[in-house]
Amino acid sequence: MTTKGDMVYAWAGDADILKRGECGGAVTALLKYALENKLVDAVLAVKKGQDLYDAVPTLVTDPEKIVECAGSLHCGTLLLPKIFKEDFNGGRDMKIAVTLKGCDAKAMYELAKRNQVSLDNFIMIGLNCGGTVSPMTARRMITEKYGVDPGSVIKEEIDKGQFIIEYEGGEKGISIDELEEEGFGRRANCQRCKTKIPRQCDIACGNWGVIGDKAGKATFIEICSEKGANLVSGAEKAGAISTSAPDPKGLAIRDKVEGAMLKLADKCREKQFSKLGEGTERLKFLMDETSKCIKCYQCIEACPICYCKECSTKKPYLVPRGQIPPPFMFHLIRYSHIADSCINCGQCEERCAMDIPNSLFMHAIQLEMQEMFGYEPGVNLDLPVLALVEEPAERKRLNDTGDDQIFNIFGQAKGCLK
């Protein structure tokens, strides 16, 4: 019987899942168990599309099809939570189990604060994440650095500081540090990320800390909530998974790995943010980079924090229509709306047709606000600095009263979520 705070090694009881799953297939087995026993109505996971550079979000309702989502895809850079808001009414109409990276988990919490998703209806299975690689970068990297046809790659993984590929005819690994020095490797936002183990989920799963005869054959699971404890205990009782206590040396190794990755993230932040400069130098850098904007709105469409039905960037008295590139006000509106709650998911940069480093700008602003006000987005349900409101209700209040003051900075925020 597991409880919140416990840590275990776990592996699947099903032979097929054990063979096809990553690190013993515990995550796949837990998802299948949750579906079979009606703990959830569906599972949203990611599976390989045409190749391993094509990550496809997949809603699964048949337990027998869960195994199709087994394994990891480091070259898939999806962010799942906004799908729940836009396609599943925030999970209010069905119970869903979902696998989440650190940035996914943070997005879930930020959307919950805005009443866009209902966390009560989700089982959140966190996946330890050292970072993802853009599909285009991965293809070019494998061609140029590995000398291998990207189409021949059967499997990829990030392990022991290397990006390792298995392809038709062999296997090859190159140091992540070497790759990133040459502009390859993980996405820039992943290099800066410090949410390596998403403990805000119900359970956090990965291979860090699994050693000895269980190495590569079991998943390390950290129980982070009572909901997570019930899931793991129920699955073990039903024979869906088996568990054992973690090796004490493995715990020390896990802490060491996480600590090393956090130090590396600090180093990457210092290096990347130094390019921005300070004061007027930073402002000029931002204005120069954003002058390439073609106003395609992909940064806004992709952002999990953007949720207004009526975007201020589309109001002609704020941003004139038909002007390309748009005036800097277009970007200032976005920065001011999102800055305190940016989760550094990198989607605004990933989708940008003009390669504007949007995520770098936003993350730098967010961290400065975090230092000033102590608010860290996506780790709990504390309200952000800007004391968020329910957008439709607030717009009605503004229209009815003619009052343009959204927040009372000297007291309780008007319309603030309870």
Automatic annotation (TrEMBL):
Q: Look up the record and name the cofactor or cofactors this protein needs.
A: FAD
UniProt keywords (A-Z) are:
Iron, Iron-sulfur, Metal-binding, Oxidoreductase
Provide any one GO MF term from the record.
metal ion binding
The UniProt entry, under InterPro entries, shows:
4Fe4S_Fe-S-bd, 4Fe4S_Fe_S_CS, Co_F420_Hydgase/DH_bsu_N, FRHB/FDHB/HCAR-like, FrhB_FdhB_C
**Protein origin, superkingdom:** Archaea
Q: Answer yes or no on keyword Nucleus.
A: no
User: Does the record's keyword annotation contain Oxidoreductase?
Assistant: yes
Q: What is its EC number?
A: 1.2.1.2
Record-annotated 4Fe-4S ferredoxin-type domain positions: 283-314, 333-363
One Pfam family per UniProt: FrhB_FdhB_N
Protein name per Swiss-Prot or TrEMBL: Coenzyme F420 hydrogenase/dehydrogenase beta subunit domain protein
Give the originating organism.
Methanolacinia petrolearia (strain DSM 11571 / OCM 486 / SEBR 4847)
Its ancestry begins with: Archaea, Methanobacteriati, Methanobacteriota, Stenosarchaea group, Methanomicrobia
